[in-house]
C-alpha cells in the first residue's frame, strides 16, 4: 500500500508518494495541469504505477482555521479524484508548508527557475510526511490501549 500526497494548485500540482511501509515520503516532481482528459489519464497511470490506495491533499486554510475559495477549489478537485479514481481522499492542514518549503529551498540555494516547481514538490512531501506521522502516532496509541 502506498499513499499519494498532493499540493494542489491551479496550474501545478506537487506530488509525493509514500514507501510501501508508510514510513517516508519521496517527491515525484510536479504535474502541470492540462485538461480534464489528460489530467485523468496522468493520475490513473500514477495510481497504477505506484499502487496507490489512498490520497492526501493539503487543505489551504486561513491562519484562523477558516476556509476560503482556495480550500473550496481544493475540495472540488478532491471530489473529482475520489469519483474518478475510486480511492479515498483525505485532507491535511497545509498552513505554513509553503513557508517550510521556501526555507528548505533557500537552504539548498536552488536556482531561481527551479524554485516554483520544487516548492510545490517539497510542500507535497511535507504534507504527506506529516500525514504519515499522524497515522503512525494513532496506530501506536491504539496498540497501547
For this entry, give a set of tags.
single chain; globular; five-stranded mixed sheet
Q: What does this protein structure show overall?
A:
The protein has 145 residues and is an alpha/beta fold. The protein has one domain (2-143): Nucleotidyltransferase, domain 5 (2-Layer Sandwich). Helices cover 52% and strands 23% of the residues. It has a five-stranded mixed β-sheet, with helices on both faces. Strand 2 (12-18) and strand 3 (25-32) form a beta hairpin. The chain is globular and about 45 Å long. The two termini are 25 Å apart. The mean pLDDT is 87.
CATH architecture: 2-Layer Sandwich
Number of separate helices: 4
Strand content: 15-25%
Please trace the helix and strand order, writing H or E for each element: EEEHEHEHH
Count the E strands: 5
Biggest sheet statistics: 5 strands, mixed
Shape: globular
Under CATH, the topology is which?
Nucleotidyltransferase, domain 5
Question: Tell me, what is the CATH class?
Answer: Alpha Beta
Flag low-confidence runs.
none
Rounded Rg: 15 Å
The computed structural class is alpha/beta
Query: End-to-end distance, in Å?
Result: 25 Å
CATH level 4 superfamily:
YqgF/RNase H-like domain
Quick check: average pLDDT? 87
Lateral strand order in the biggest sheet: 3-2-1-4-5
Helix content range of the residues, please? 40-55%
Overall number of domains:
1
Amino acid at each position: 500500500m502506498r499513499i499519494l500526497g498532493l499540493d494542489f494548485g491551479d496550474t501545478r500540482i506537487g506530488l509525493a508518494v509514500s514507501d510501501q511501509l508508510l514510513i517516508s515520503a519521496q517527491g515525484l516532481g510536479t504535474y502541470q495541469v492540462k485538461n480534464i482528459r489528460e489530467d485523468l489519464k496522468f493520475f490513473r497511470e500514477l495510481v497504477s504505477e505506484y499502487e496507490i490506495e489512498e490520497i492526501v491533499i493539503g487543505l489551504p486554510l486561513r491562519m484562523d482555521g477558516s476556509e476560503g475559495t482556495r480550500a473550496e477549489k481544493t475540495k472540488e478537485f478532491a471530489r473529482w479524484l475520489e469519483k474518478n479514481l475510486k480511492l479515498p481522499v483525505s485532507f491535511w492542514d497545509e498552513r505554513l508548508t509553503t513557508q517550510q518549503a521556501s526555507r528548505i529551498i533557500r537552504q539548498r540555494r536552488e536556482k531561481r527557475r527551479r524554485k516554483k516547481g520544487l516548492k510545490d514538490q517539497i510542500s507535497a512531501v511535507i504534507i504527506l510526511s506529516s500525514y504519515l506521522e499522524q497515522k503512525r502516532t494513532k496506530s501506536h496509541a491504539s496498540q497501547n490501549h
